[in-house]
Write a structure and sequence with these properties.
By secondary structure, the chain is mainly beta. The protein contains 2 helices and 21 strands. Strands 12, 13, 15, 16, 17, 18, 19 and 21 form an 8-stranded antiparallel beta sheet that branches. Strand 16 (about 250-255) and strand 17 (about 265-270) form a beta hairpin. The longest helix is centred in the C-terminal third of the chain and has 12 residues, at about 310-325.
Length: about 325
């Protein structure tokens, strides 16, 4: 599951009651936390994470995160890497769904937060994963340290669930994470996650794409994506930006209607150039719910876009689910 809170996806920490020792925004940085010993600033050892002062009175320290892609949360990770004598002994996590743009102060004062992870013990210098069973759509999560300490990274894994009103204004990217697209299978993700293919914006480095290991057999690598809903695709984008000596030689795109439907051709096998944004207009009046990108034989891809529109029945279903509060 992708991390819905990543800065690259639009996530941000919008409120905290304390980050004296280490800035709270570090929680959402994409790379793993780093540590350089004996790097002292005016406030002490510099940490790549969030660290609060030592509490001398009852209370807790909290941070509120706006999800870059609102959606259903399936699990969270409270990563205390490099925090050994200063990690919180317990944490809890709550979530909330709000309409529009709300300030951090308003969110902190809200009384309708839902607990998705009860107060639980954590270990220091460890990735602490917690499963979440809630099925509701959330826009923000709140991490609480009991009573204080440091956390390096906070990951919120789930499935994006956008407001269907944004689907009513023409073509949009049916595969995007923020629109409900989801990687469901992948042949190889040795160097980087296939979720990177569905991130917003252009990749800025090779590390922001999907790259496989080198194949030494006659096969090829592939990734499968569930789309925002049953839809018709009219434009395919295969972006190999920043992949120079390791871009695929060619690629195909197929689609299917339903998990048991037969795969059909969307884009025939097409040669690709390194470091290039390829765009193909598709003349195909056939609905699909899933897409499969095959690259030959291996290599890296920066972005995979499938622009089109939802079918009338898919749009009606999403609106009905939204109005019933289902996600």
């Amino acid at each position: 599951m992708p991390d819905l809170a990543l800065r690259n996806l639009g996530g941000a920490v919008v409120w905290t009651n304390d980050d004296l020792f280490a800035e709270v925004q570090n929680l959402l940085n994409t790379p793993p936390a780093e540590y350089r010993p004996a790097t002292f600033g005016h406030k002490g050892q510099v940490y790549d994470g969030w660290e609060t002062r030592r509490r001398r009175e009852p209370g807790v320290d909290q941070a509120i995160v706006r999800l870059g892609a609102p959606g259903v949360v399936y699990g969270v990770v409270v990563d205390t890497s490099w925090f050994k004598g200063n990690y919180p002994p317990f944490v809890s996590v709550e979530a909330i769904a709000v309409e529009g743009i709300v300030s951090g102060e308003e969110l902190a004062a809200a009384d309708n937060w839902m607990t998705i992870v009860d107060k639980r013990p954590v270990d220091g210098d460890t990735r602490n994963p917690f499963r979440v069973d809630a099925k509701e759509r959330f826009t923000h999560v709140r991490l609480t340290m009991h009573p204080d300490g440091g956390v390096a990274r906070f990951r919120v894994h789930g499935r994006g669930v956008p407001d269907p009103k944004f689907f009513r204004y023409g073509h949009f990217d049916l595969a995007a994470l923020e629109n409900g697209g989801l990687v469901t299978a992948c042949s190889n993700m040795f160097y980087s996650s296939p979720n990177n293919l569905l991130m917003p914006g252009r990749a800025r480095t090779m590390g922001e794409g999907w790259e496989t290991s080198r194949r030494r057999d006659a096969g090829n690598d592939w990734v499968q994506v569930r789309l925002a809903g049953r839809s018709r695709v009219s434009l395919v984008e295969l972006d190999t930006s920043y992949f120079l000596g390791n871009s695929p030689g060619s690629a195909t795109v197929r689609g299917r209607d339903g998990e048991t439907g037969e795969w059909f051709e969307v884009l025939p096998r097409t040669q690709l150039l390194p470091d290039t944004r390829h765009r193909f207009v598709i003349d195909l009046d056939r609905p699909m719910t899933e897409a499969r990108l095959d690259i030959f034989p291996d290599g890296g891809m920066a972005r995979f876009r499938l622009y089109g529109t939802l079918t009338d029945d898919a749009e009606a279903t999403l609106i009905e689910q939204w109005e019933r509060g289902e996600a």
